[in-house]
Amino acid sequence: MRFHTRKWVKPEDLNPNHTLFGGQLLAWIDEEAALYTIIQLENSKIVTKYMSEINFMASAKQGDIIEIGIEVIKFGRSSLTMKCEVRNKMTRETILTVDNIIMVNLGDDGKPAPHGKTEVEFVKDRLEE
């Protein structure tokens, strides 16, 4: 799994227990999945269709640095299915896992559209072409 994004847990990210608010973490994951999908499918018109069970395994506290990892599981006709792990950057302790996140590629009409991709591509490889 590749860990693309790091976040610093700040006071405004905390819940009443003084640990990272789960809703904030889910927003970060949704944003990361969207950005990853936009880059992979080369289309900014995408939506989140589904997130499977979310497994909170540990908490993060103010000052922790967390990192969000995304891995592609499957390319569908108009979708991209990924899994996600969030971990503490310093201790490598897993904070959360999501087994399935499905993002859908949209056409100009706002409806699901085929994307034609079948494997993960890296931007550096596209630039060499």
Supply Rg.
Answer: 16 Å
CATH domain topology: Thiol Ester Dehydrase, Chain A
Distance between the termini: 26 Å
Q: What's the structural domain tally?
A: 1
How would you name the CATH homologous superfamily? Hotdog Thioesterase
The helix-strand sequence is EHEEEEEH
Which runs of at least 5 residues are low in confidence (pLDDT < 50)?
A: none
CATH 2nd-level architecture? Roll
Give the overall shape, derived from the CA principal axes: elongated
Q: What fraction, in percent, of the residue positions are helical?
A: 10-25%
Structural class: alpha+beta
Chart the SSEs and their pairings:
Elements: E1 2-8, H1 22-41, E2 46-51, E3 54-56, E4 65-75, E5 79-88, E6 94-105, H2 123-128
Antiparallel strand pairs: 1-4, 2-6, 3-6, 4-5, 5-6
What distinguishing features does this structure have?
alpha+beta, Thiol Ester Dehydrase, Chain A, six-stranded antiparallel beta sheet, 2 helices, 38% strand
Task: Describe what you observe in this structure.
It is a single chain. The chain is of the alpha+beta class. The protein has one domain: Hotdog Thioesterase (Thiol Ester Dehydrase, Chain A). About 20% of the residues lie in helices and about 40% in strands. It contains two helices and six strands; from the N terminus they run βαβββββα. The chain has helices at about 20-40, 125-129; strands at about 1-10, 45-50, 55, 65-75, 80-90, 95-105. Strands 1, 2, 3, 4, 5 and 6 form a six-stranded antiparallel β-sheet that branches. Strand 5 (about 80-90) and strand 6 form a beta hairpin. The longest helix has 20 residues, at about 20-40. The two termini are about 25 Å apart. About 20% of the residues are buried.
